[in-house]
Design goal:
The structure holds 3 protein chains of 3 kinds. Chain A is built from 2 helices and no strands. In chain A, α1 runs antiparallel to α2. By secondary structure, chain B is mainly α. By secondary structure, chain C is mainly alpha-helical. In chain C, α3 packs parallel to α5 and α4 packs antiparallel against α5. Chain C starts with about 25 loop residues before the first strand and ends in a 10-residue tail after the last helix. The chains are: A mainly alpha, B mainly alpha, C mainly alpha. Chains in contact: A-B, A-C, B-C. The interface between B and C is large, with 31 and 43 residues. Chain C: Its main location: membrane.
Amino acid sequence: MNPTIAAASVIAAALAIGLAAIGPGIGQGNASGSAVEGIARQPEAEGKIRGTLLLTLAFMESLTIYGLVIALVLLFANPFA
Amino acid sequence: MFDFDATLPLMAIQFLILMVLLNRLFFKPLMKTLDERDSYIRSNQVDAQERLAKAQRLIQQYEEELAASRREAQALVASAEEEAQKIAAQRLAEAQQEAQARREQAQQELDRQKAEAMQALEQQVDALSRQILDKVLGASVG
Amino acid sequence: MQMLSFLDTFTAFPLAELEVGKHFYWEIGNLKLHGQVFITSWIVIAILLTASVLATRNIQRVPQGIQNVMEYALEFVRDIAKNQLGEKEYRPWLPFIGTLFLFIFVSNWSGALIPWRLIELPEGELAAPTSDINTTVALALLTSLAYFYAGFSKRGLGYFSKYVEPTPILLPIAILEDFTKPLSLSFRLFGNILADELVVAVLVLLVPLFVPIPVMLLGLFTSAIQALVFATLAGAYIHEAVEGHGGEEHEAH
């Protein structure tokens, strides 16, 4: 493999996963904060709020996972190698 | 890692076969069981509600009967008390009457004996006074 | 597949090794198969079928033992389908959604709970079937077919009206959505499971004992959630195709 392409791929993989983690991180923080607020306001709705929160967290998590998939493509299945 | 090959369609076919098998072995029989259990529970619930209503009706009936008999018993007790009081009053009156009669009788006897005694005393007084008179007069007359 | 050469140093460790992108190939005719995926998926299928047969062999009105467990599983997937498709529509789709959930769930947990790596293969290593992209893409494509079939069988050609329903301007986006749905479904599942296995493998590589356990527990949790998400989304897509009012709510739940 061309060393330049290898280096660029590793940097790109790191950036992909790092940048992809920013947005979902903020979003998950917001969602969890609102969920805690909701539970504090309405403790009897805790079960329902928790279930919805977990599902939405999984959706946000999947955004980072898309970045991870790209990183894995670059590392292990690099189309330019 | 991202190589697609014959694994993909075979996996899909395998999944469909699994779905058919699970549908026959798992979903259908257990859903049937769940439905049967639901209807069983529902019919049991209806049955139980009917029995509960019946029991409540019976309870009401018994309570009514209980109240009626309690009222009856109270009336009975009241009448018995009344009767007893009447009897007691009657007996008291009788006893008082008898006592009165006896007392009157005793009084009469007493009066009679007093009169007899007075009479006897009077006779004795008469006899004595005649004797005294005789003695006194006899001496002078005699 | 190709690996970057720096990863080769990992394989020098005797305790654990990281093999990514290597497959145990079977060849049938001129078709290539990933043998390790089939081996593990057959075990998963065997687990599911055995549990089903054991649970329904002697059905009682008051459930006991494995019948109780499987009834709990059935009620769980029934609730998923019922929440997404509604009380009236969910019955015919229950086998599909339920099998999706059970297969993905048992696959994910088998990858975390069964010590596959103790079994030596000539090449590649055994792992959860869902950590192979072929499996997840197959499941996602089946989901796409399922919702197309649901839309057609319910509304006939009127199903296509959803592409131009609010305004024809959104036609490209509506068509694009049909491609992004299976793409996101398959990549979400594949990425989560593969990431989970990779994180555990890397941690085992660094500290072989005890330290990876919390990460493994987190992995169990996320794998269960991913199975739930896949089944829920499949239900939501089918519901959207059957009901057909607007495409806005599909990721809302």
